[in-house]
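Hello Y.,

Per our agreement to keep a running log of every chain we model this quarter, I'm adding this entry. I've kept the format consistent with earlier entries: sequence first, then predicted structure.
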Amino acid sequence: MVAHVIETVDAGDAFIARSAALTGFSEEELRATGMSEEYRAVVRERVGADRFKLFLEDEHSPDRAEGSRAPEGGWGELADAVILLWYTGSWPGLDGAAPFTVSARAYAAGLVWRAFGGEPPGAGPSGFGSWAEAPRGVAAGAGVAQ
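Predicted structure for the entry above:
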């Protein structure tokens, strides 16, 4: 039983490390979303344990470098799916599977909101109508063509 716990922790750490490299957010920032274990479980379930393990262990992943143990076509599609998962809380569906949003919590925790300093519409602390206001720290009219 202890070996299983250690293996799970190691896979979680490897998933966080790989995710940090892919998303541009630090491991601490990803852990702070509270979604790392749920996302790890989603990816592992959707791609299978063997493919998931290889994705985490392949030092060339997500590159298509020589010596990679990546499947034909490389890790690009899976890497893109993991990035989308972190940024939007949605799994794009791979290998013909249907895409889906992991949960309302995953949507609200999406990195896309942090990336531009905003709040998720209808889910942030400002509530309904929050999308009508400029994000904190952004001047009114910012980004409007002059």
